[in-house]
Each structure stands twice: as C-alpha cells, then as structure tokens.
Amino acid sequence: MATRGFVGRRGGPEGTTERLPPGQFLESGFPVLSAGPTPRIKTEEWSFTLKNGVRPVKRWNWAEFNALPQTKMTRDIHCVTTWSKFDTAWEGVMVDDILADAYIEPPADFTLAHSYDGYTTNVPTADLVGGRAMVALRYEGKPITPDHGGPARLLVPHLYFWKSAKWINGLQFTERDELGFWELRGYHRYGDPWREQRYTND
C-alpha cells in the first residue's frame, strides 16, 4: 500500500498547475501499478457480464462487445500514488451504451467492478453514467497492453485511478456500497482527487 505524506501541490509546466489536484505531480510516462501479477487474457476467451445483484442481465463476448458503439475520450488521470498524466486518449464503450444494449436503466445506486484477477472496486452508479465512464479497449489508438489492463479496463477518469479497474470482466449493481479490494485495505470508498480522498478518513 502507498504511504501517507501527500502534501500540497508539486509544480508542473507553466499553465498546468490548475489541472493538478492537491499533492499530485505531472508524469510524462505511464507508470505500471497493480495489486498482483498481470493476467494474460486472450480476446477469444474474454467476456463481459452485466449483473443486477447476483442475477446476470447480459453477457457479451469480445466480438459482440466491440460491435457496440465506440466513443473516444481524452482525459487527465490521477493516481493515488501522486502522479497525474494529462490528455490520455482512450476509445471504448461508454457505460451508457452498455446499459442501452442491455435495455436497462441503472437498477441500483451502487456498482462493483469485477476483474479477471479477482480485483474489485466500488463506484457509485451515478459516476459511471451520463458520459462519465467507459470500458476502454484502446489507448492512443492501439489495443491496451496487458500491463495497463488490456484487453479491456474500466475508465473513470474523475476518480483516483485505482477505481479504473484493469482487466475488467463485469459490472455488478448492488443495493449497498460494497467495498472493493483496496477499499477494504484502507483506501477511501469514493476517491476524489480534488478532495484528496486517498484513505478511509480523508
């Protein structure tokens, strides 16, 4: 787990400071951080399942998921370990379009994202809809590499990046806010970079 000591706003190039949340610094690269080993998922074996509680609503294979409407999104991202990266370019399927293809409205206020490695993270449903989040399939015009969460990862750019679950294979709507992997280990249940919500009591 990351340690405390996130204080103030570190400098960046002129004109970028207002884009850096408190305690963050501008990163030109793209650091690789994971909770465990990197899984290697073949696209022919990949699937994505939408669930309402324990009940599956719809499942897509790789070809079916890629046939859904594709959207491009360029956003700044912010990692809880204090780095931020500007203007990251993603392409994938908006959560709104996933719900539309399943012919459902959001059935609950909370959502738990599930990944192939057993990782989970909780996100309020309102933070996934309305054009705010996608299941990303490409980064900078190319398939997402396994170390960055490929073949598909959740992208919730307005929250700390641990909420953007790598190697995603489903979203599960829940009636209560069920904590995920890092949230159970002391990270904040919401994770707003601008409010420095890194740890449970922040």
Tally of individual helices = 2
Which spans have pLDDT < 50 for at least 5 consecutive residues?
1-11
CATH-assigned fold name: Sulfite Oxidase, Chain A, domain 2
Provide the number of structural domains.
Answer: 1
Termini gap: 16 Å
Q: Give the radius of gyration.
A: 16 Å
Q: Write the CATH architecture name.
A: Alpha-Beta Complex
CATH class: Alpha Beta
> Major β-sheet, in short?
6 strands, mixed
The shape is: globular
Mean pLDDT: 92
Listing every helix as H and every strand as E from the N terminus to the C terminus, the arrangement reads EEEHEEHEEEEEE
Task: Outline the structure in words.
The protein is mainly beta and 202 residues long. The chain has a single domain, classed as Sulfite Oxidase, Chain A, domain 2 (Alpha-Beta Complex), CATH 3.90.420.10. Helix content is 6%, strand content 32%. The protein has 2 helices and 11 strands; from the N terminus they run βββαββαββββββ. Strands 1, 4, 5, 8, 9 and 10 form a 6-stranded mixed β-sheet that branches. A 5-stranded mixed β-sheet has the order 3-2-11-6-7. A hairpin with a 4-residue loop joins strand 6 and strand 7. The longest helix is centred in the middle third of the chain and has 7 residues. The radius of gyration is 16 Å and the shape is globular. The chain starts with 24 loop residues before the first strand and ends in a 28-residue tail after the last strand.
